[in-house]
Amino acid sequence: MIDEATTPESFKMGEKFENYVREYLFVDNYYDILERTHDYKMNKDYVHSSLKPDFTFRDRWTKKEFYVEAKFRTGVYNNKIVWCNDNQLKRYLEYNKERPVFLILGMGDKPNYPEFLSLMPLTQAKYTGIFPSHAEKFEIELDKPVSSKILWGR
Questions:
Q1: Which long-range contacts link 137-144 to residues 24+ away (Cβ below 8 Å)?
Q2: Mean pLDDT score of the chain
Q3: Helix (H) and strand (E) counts for the chain?
Q4: What is the per-residue pLDDT across 31-45, written as a single tens digit (0 to 9) for each?
Q5: In this predicted structure, what is the pLDDT of residue 110?
Q6: Number of C-alpha atoms within 13 angstroms, CB side, residue 146?
Q7: Is the CB of residue 118 less than 8 Å from the CB of residue 84?
Q8: Spatial CB neighbours of 130, under 8 Å, sequence gap ≥ 6
Q9: What average pLDDT does this structure show over 63-73?
């Protein structure tokens, strides 16, 4: 109960959205989870692997391994969806050299019930802020598993 009270709201929202991503989008039937970053409570000891994107998956169909960074936002700032800071972007770009990084962006009021979802390769999210019109080009259906075709067919 104390952990719940001391965990920042932004981390709670992030964890809820990450759970949504695993439960509804990158489901066990399609993807093996190889790694997941630690939650806020675990990371008080600073686990170095928490610098990686949120998930490392292997596509069961293609056997390709890839990263997914899950970001949930409740609104826009200066007409952009700010999804990361400069240091994070630099880090994600380095990981993208190792294996593909995908950004799953959720928008709305509740991270466990997003109103909008966008899934884009990091190569399409080159800046810390994304225009909503750009995110809309990569919109995916709510609550529906991401197929291998959606992931690799773009």
A1: 140/25, 141/117, 142/24, 142/114, 142/115, 142/116, 142/117, 143/24, 144/24, 144/25
A2: 90
A3: 5, 7
A4: 999 999 976 555 455
A5: 96
A6: 26
A7: no
A8: 80, 81, 83, 105
A9: 97
- Cα 151 to Cα 13, 71, 146: the distances in Å are 25, 17, 7
Alpha-carbon distance of 111 to 71, in angstroms, equals 9
Half-sphere exposure of 59 (CA within 13 A, CB side): 18
pTM over 0.70? The answer is yes
Structure-token pair, residue 79: 């007409």
Kindly list the distances between the CA atom of residue 119 and the CA atoms of 42, 64, 142, in Å, as whole numbers in the listed order. 27, 17, 11
Q: For residue 59, what are its two tokens?
A: 């596509």
**Beta-bridge partner residues of 31:** 59
* Cβ(101)–Cβ(123) below 8 Å: no
Bridge partner list, 49: none
